[in-house]
Design a protein that fits this description.
Structural class: alpha/beta
CATH topology of the largest domain: D-Maltodextrin-Binding Protein, domain 2
Largest sheet: 5 strands, mixed
Order of helices and strands: HHHHHEHEHEHEEEHEHEEEHH
CATH class of the largest domain: Alpha Beta
Distance between the termini: 96 Å
Shape: elongated
Number of helices: 12
CATH architecture of the largest domain: 3-Layer(aba) Sandwich
Strand content: 15-25%
Helix content: 25-40%
Length: 311
């Protein structure tokens, strides 16, 4: 056979098959025993990318590294694995990019109820809902500094109104979605006048329920307890943890988070706790979620969680 034929050129260029092992193509699509590497597979967009990458990695002459170890231009197995992994991620990425996601900021008191509501919505639609929870004041500060949320479930009306300039075009002003109730966990209302009974509340500077709790404690009937140990949590969830762990005797909490047997605090003892929703994002996904949230089904879930309907 002439030296210029492709067969001899391949023989001269590469080591014998016994030294090289099966080709990458053969490993990807093996043919019958003894048949050697398989023919080019039928068109398949996913397999084509891997097939092309594999066939690009063929042994080629390179400067010898030593007297007995000739180099090759083919990547080592670890390099091949990294290439295949990167290709697979590229093939799968379009599906991930197309996944719908809503980013929701929610006051700590409403998080448990919203998680339950969102579970039903995600199961029905496949839309991913990502919650970020903190006190209303902390979340409002994050929004003012550019936090990328689509919805803001606050525990008051004041902060959503202050952020109304961030609302999505055509979204309208913030609207009430629930009214909260304050309760006392761990004792009876007269215990608020006993200085020896320690108490946990949420930070009144950033948490509306903490502000309501402070208004209750400022009543003349409870002035005798002014010298008590008063622990302020960053939010109502932390105030609950202080009480639940036994660190304090009493806690003024949202009814939605309190244990059975907690004593309701008369609503006339503090300002109304009207919780408002600010719509920041726009688009079909936001519209679909709002339609669900304003449904009769969700209204019943909110009432079951311990909230009262808006006026």
């Amino acid at each position: 056979m002439p030296a210029s034929t492709p067969a001899i050129a391949a023989t001269e260029r590469f080591p014998p098959a016994s030294r090289r092992g099966p080709s990458t193509t053969a490993l990807l699509r093996p043919g019958p025993p003894g048949a050697g590497p398989a023919a080019r597979p039928p068109a398949d967009p996913g397999f084509d990318a891997l097939y092309t990458a594999a066939t690009l990695c063929q042994p080629a002459p390179r400067r010898r590294r030593g007297p007995t170890h000739p180099g090759t231009a083919c990547a080592e197995p670890r390099g091949l694995l990294l290439r295949y992994t990167a290709l697979l991620l590229l093939l799968l990425a379009p599906g991930l990019w197309g996944q719908e996601t809503l980013r929701i900021a929610v006051a700590a008191n409403f998080k448990p109820a919203l998680e339950h509501i969102n579970t039903e919505f995600s199961a029905a639609t496949g839309i991913t809902l990502r919650l970020s929870s903190a006190s209303t004041g902390v979340l409002a500060s994050q929004l003012r500094h550019g936090a990328p949320f689509d919805l803001f479930f606050a525990a008051d009306a004041a902060r959503p109104r202050q952020l109304a300039d961030l609302a999505a075009p055509g979204a309208g002003p913030p609207a009430c979605y629930a009214r909260g109730r304050l309760v006392l966990a761990g004792g009876d209302l007269p215990d608020l006048a006993l200085p020896q009974r320690s108490l946990a509340i949420a930070n009144p500077l950033v948490a509306p329920y903490g502000r309501a709790a402070l208004q209750v404690l400022e009543r003349k009937a409870f002035s005798a307890g002014a010298g008590r140990k008063l622990v302020r949590g960053q939010n109502v969830a932390q105030a609950f943890q202080y009480w639940h762990s036994g660190a304090v005797d009493l806690a003024l909490l949202p009814a939605a988070m309190a244990p059975a047997g907690a004593v309701p605090v008369p609503a006339s003892w503090h300002e109304p706790i009207e919780q408002h929703l600010l719509v920041l994002g726009q688009g079909p996904t936001v519209d679909r979620y709002l339609k669900w949230f304003r449904s009769d089904r969700v209204r019943s879930l909110i009432l079951d969680a311990g909230y009262e309907p808006c006026p």
